[in-house]
Amino acid sequence: MKQSYCGIEILFVAGFGPITQNTGESKAFYQEALGLPLKPMEGNEEYLLTEHDVLSGVKHFALWPLAQAAQSCFGSDRWPQDLPVPQAWLEFDVADIAEATATLVAKGYRLLVANRLEPWGQSVTRLLSPEGILVGVTVTPWLRD
């Protein structure tokens, strides 16, 4: 079911997961203790993910190393000291990323990335939530039905 909230039409939760500072410890917990079927993303051994729709209710679950999240947002492996270090990431796939981005800007939110096409084909706008979650509004073509 599509929902429109304040000018942003959210289609589904595209993905969720922790942002890791020690991928080995996180892998031990999520894969070995909880039994999640995590595997490295092709070409990126540190980014551990589940296959599409393996976990009911989640299109994409992954452990995202902090250095890679920083690289995606700032083009550097270091998270800026003036921003809270996020503990998790959450992405909402939206009907219109340009409209969603404009709505967030109009509401005064500080965007870390604005409507950028990632090398893997996803369009994304990212910002930090009040709780310190790295939130994305996205268009993720391979997750759409």
TrEMBL record:
Residue ranges occupied by any Glyoxalase/fosfomycin resistance/dioxygenase domain in the UniProt entry: 20-135
Domain of life: Eukaryota
Protein's UniProt name: Glyoxalase/fosfomycin resistance/dioxygenase domain-containing protein
Source species of the chain: Anopheles maculatus
Source species taxonomy: Eukaryota, Metazoa, Ecdysozoa, Arthropoda, Hexapoda
